[in-house]
Design brief:
Four copies of one chain form a homotetramer.
Chain A (H helix, E strand, L loop, with lengths): L1 E4 L6 H11 L25 E2 L2 E4 L3 E8 L2 E4 L5 E5 L2 E11 L2 E2 L5 E5 L1 H8 L7 E5 L11 E9 L5 E10 L4 E10 H18 L2 H4 L28
Antiparallel strand pairs in A: 3-4, 4-7, 5-6, 7-8, 7-9, 10-11, 11-12, 12-13
Chain lengths: 231, 231, 231, 231
């Protein structure tokens, strides 16, 4: 029988500390912002941030969704320019219920990596490899891997990040055991997030006729949208 | 073959009674409101409340979602300050189809407890412990536990709450059998609610450019949002 | 191997016919409207109707979601007064691809009945009984039952409605075979609809501060919303 | 153990190329637009497009949701006139990581075909047949089929399109292997899209009382909406 307890001293103060770090400082989980005038961020005040964090003995793991980017297209609408992602942030523990937020390690899951994670069988593993310097002259200097391995007996998973730095000759590894219940939260949150980080929720939002839009602009005929026949 | 019947005399009057109790009186299922001027509740008139209730012989069980709390952050947006929850409310029966709403017992499920419940196998159990006086001088005086145990043969679950009061020397226990169909409603509603009580729906809502916002406020460069490379 | 074909002569004209019937005439799938001035229907023009229909040899079956009803509460918000439902509408065939819409039979699934349907195993059955005259002097005169029974070999289900009229001494029965793919559509649509017909989507919608609301109305302190401790 | 890698040279430039093709040119994935003045497209600037694409050795496959069409009904609301769909677009490879977008093949999945795909067991297959000239004098000249067959060992599926042109005596075939992780993305995206392409999200959206609507227009009595009793 699974037992969860809340009799433990609260970690709420720690969570606040964490969140202050997550949403400020050097990493901001926001829309991609360029310095170009075209991408002026007018809606910073409307942005909301949310995460799900598990605190364990040797490290904490926080997951957080990131929105996709859209770009204007000629026809007047917009299309996804860059998919969003789900960011995994690991923090090492430096004492009982104390975590060093300056030593965080990041790993951004792509839609397909999210798909891998949410379809993981209870006895299955998966591993992803990222190279932060991909496509630059520094390619291969730093290698990150994220692996998810079963705890056994359908009890959850170990989520491990390894960051190998060939220049600094360092090899950092953080590991967080995730219970079946916690993984169910992650799976549900990731399944919910997946269509959103690909922009499908926005593509599937109907836009009712705007009463202020000029109604006197008839369009020329276009091919029927969902017809596959027209080639 | 499962059979559900509606030939029974209606319980609709009772449901109304219950709802009057649920949404008024000493417990209000609303946003956390402080008395600070900053948190003035301007939107009370827009708030909507919903629940799912099962009425059984010895007790009734009602589940109801509660929104998370957001707090402003320096950068101009906001982040989850306190997760929402799913409130379970138990009412003892005091006669045929009559329940004593003054003797209700509450149990608020955290996101991880919701995760535990929605991933529960048909033959599995789970149990959660809460201490209402946690972190106060009264810690340990009252202990609550919620257990969910299978009825057997994939027929649903017993949902039991026990409230042990060491000061008043009382030990109240309410138990509600939940059919497979009713549990499917709960599981579906909880799965739907989970991303919302963690604020992920709000974090994943894009905010289109507001036409009234001042467009002439270019921002300084910020790190690319979803890049994990920038440490 | 499952094979679906679109080479058959189109049924699109028939579908239009059906929809004209579904959304007009004696049955309107709309919000509950009383004649009281308080419930004036100001938003008829914004309402949208959708269904999913399967046309088979002896009958057609259409399913369609119906919104819940809210009622104002003292505190200024509103709560679900009456759950929505998912309406099943059966039409008997009167010729090849022709259906008699005047002989439709209706069956409104409650949230728990929806839960029963979406959790149905591939070899399981379920049956629901409704009495249209429940709680009136005509109780027992008409009895409806809806049964869902497996086609066998994980191939889908038979969905059957029986309407027994003890006064008119009639016993009508319509039966529609639903393929595994069609049932997957129904299951997905019903799972999506379930939180909505219970009003959970509206209860979980956050209402951002309205700029036009009077901000100078500080509230008195209220109990913390999601605390279960306060009894 | 499943391994995904990002060390490969990026395909981002190719993706951009693809998207330019997807959202412009001869095929526009938009609302159905007639040339009639009534259907003037006033909201082109608000439209957003999203897809999910997998690039493989011999071909690429992109899936993309298409909204349903609504039409006004007499009572003042609107109903689904034509279901949306999920468009599958195949592109043949013409070199390493190079695809010929001019040779794309399209296949639009109906709601029931989406249901078939999302309920596909890991060892199951399905096949759909479309005739682009259905109901015209050219019926039977071109036959398309889409088949989805398991790769084996729960490793994903082959997605194959065949276009047989009896006039041009051509038979084109494109085949894309889809990993389990990629299929999980498709399944999740399709499950999310399904209620939307049928318009259920719009039918289940409540429309709060508009403050600007004339409140002095009481309606005549109508039958109770979700009552099945009223025949």
């Amino acid at each position: 029988m699974l037992r969860l307890s809340r009799f433990l001293p609260s970690t709420s103060r720690k969570v606040s500390d964490l969140k202050d770090v997550l949403w400020s400082g050097s990493v901001t989980f926001e829309h991609a912002l360029s310095t170009s005038a075209a991408n002026v961020d007018e809606n910073a005040s409307a942005r909301k941030f949310a995460s799900y964090t598990v605190f364990k003995g040797k490290a904490a793991l926080s997951i957080s969704p990131i929105l996709p980017n859209f770009t204007k297209i000629e026809s007047g609408g917009s299309r996804v320019k860059k998919n969003g992602s789900v960011m995994l942030t690991f923090f090492p523990a430096v004492g009982q219920r104390q975590y060093d937020y300056s030593k965080k390690q990041l790993f951004a899951l792509s839609p397909t990596e999210v798909g891998s994670l949410i379809s993981l069988g209870s006895a299955e593993s998966c591993e992803f490899f990222h190279d932060p310097s991909m496509k630059s002259s520094h390619e291969g200097q730093v290698k990150k891997s994220l692996s998810i391995t079963p705890l056994g007996n359908d009890n959850g998973y170990f989520v491990n990040i390894t960051v190998l730095n060939n220049v600094q000759k360092t090899n950092e590894r953080l590991s967080v055991p995730v219970t079946k219940a916690e993984f169910a939260v992650m799976r549900t949150a990731l399944s919910y997030a997946l269509p959103h980080i690909m922009g499908w929720d926005q593509a599937l939002t109907s836009h009712p006729q705007s009463p202020t839009a000029p109604a006197s602009k008839p369009r020329v005929e276009r091919p029927h949208p969902d017809s596959e026949w027209e080639r």
